Amino acid sequence: MPTVLKLGGSVVTRKDGVEQVAVARLERAAGIIGRFHGRDGDAAGAADVDAADLVVVHGGGSFGHPNAERRGVTTSEGTHDAAAVRDIHDPMRELNRLVVGALSEAGVPAVQVAPLSAGHRVDGEFRQPVDAVAALLAEGFIPVLHGDVVATAGGGVTVVSGDELVTTLATGLDADRVGLCSDVPGVLDAGGAVVDRIERFEDVADALGGSEATDVTGGMAAKVRTLLELGAPASVFDLDGLSAFLDGGSPGTWIDST
Question: Whole-prediction pTM value?
Answer without folding.
Answer: 0.88
